[in-house]
Amino acid sequence: MSDQMPEALSLASLDESNPTPLYLQLQQSIEEAVRKGAIKADDALPGERDLAKQLGVSRVTVRKAITGLVKKGVLVQRWGSGTFIAPQMRLEQPLSRLSSFTDDMSARGLPSSAILLSRSIGQASPAELMALGLSPGDEVSRVNRLRLANGVPMAIEHAVVPSRFLPDPSLVKQSLYAVLHEQGVMPTRALQRLHAVLLSDDQASLLQVPSKSPALYIERRSFTGTGEAVEFTSSYYRGDAYDFVAELTISPPDRIHQDA
């Protein structure tokens, strides 16, 4: 990560005599530099200590400014790497094709990753029983993950698979579909439903967007070639980063018969 302050951010941009708090002045300076293209997507900011020293302000001021810009989606903090200008990424996702997040990102030339939030094995809930066509007492494997593209959080994914198909949820490292393929139960079709929602505080924090930001909630039930339900996944996709596209075919109009 760069230890030098971008030229666009100068000491002159912070004025202690200004009634605006210094952390807000710093936020405004960074946002202005991004708008003007002086600093670009994926540019790294100096570390908190270095930035505070170079600007002559406290680390608390820098931390507060960065935290606010992360929540606004201007900056992104990548685990183990540092703080970067957030990519202005917007992805088109076709609704007519069944594919994994990993495959989707790979097709766009973007590295994908996942952060495990939780995983468990237990008896299926009533909703899971209904979605997967299971019997009371049947067990399922659950995997909750944060999905990232090029280090940017894009979606929260909660996947539920019957335990007979996925006996050990720890097998899922990257692509769930790759694991199901290895188990011989690759989905061949799916039913999806989606609607708009507002993110909760916790969800927004994970996706690094402001609380109550719009998102797309998608439920997917996937089936094998023999018709067995193999996956029930619910996901929250960032509304500022995704466009879902459906290709429609138009049926020919009914032939008009005229009386002779």
Describe the structure.
The protein is elongated. The protein is an alpha+beta fold and 260 residues long. It is built from seven helices and ten strands. Strand 1 and strand 2 (82-85) form a beta hairpin. Keywords: DNA-binding, Transcription, Transcription regulation.
Task: Please outline what is shown here.
The protein has seven helices and ten strands.
Order of helices and strands: HHHEEEHEHEEHEHEEE
Radius of gyration: 23 Å
What does the main sheet amount to?
A: 6 strands, antiparallel
Q: What portion of the residues fall into strands of 2 or more residues?
A: 25-35%
What's the end-to-end separation, in Å?
81 Å
How many strands? 10
Give the overall pLDDT as a whole number.
Answer: 83
The secondary structure category is: alpha+beta
What global shape is seen?
Answer: elongated
Low-confidence stretches: none
Roughly what percent helix? 10-25%
Main sheet strand line-up? 4-5-6-9-8-7
- The helix tally amounts to 7
Sequence-ordered SSE layout with sheet pairings:
Elements: H1 22-36, H2 48-55, H3 59-71, E1 75-78, E2 82-85, E3 91-94, H4 101-107, E4 112-123, H5 126-132, E5 139-149, E6 152-162, H6 176-182, E7 189-198, H7 201-207, E8 214-223, E9 229-238, E10 242-245
Parallel strand pairs: 3-10
Antiparallel strand pairs: 1-2, 4-5, 5-6, 6-9, 7-8, 8-9
Defining traits:
10 strands; single chain; six-stranded antiparallel β-sheet; 25% helix; 260 residues; two-stranded antiparallel ribbon; alpha+beta; elongated
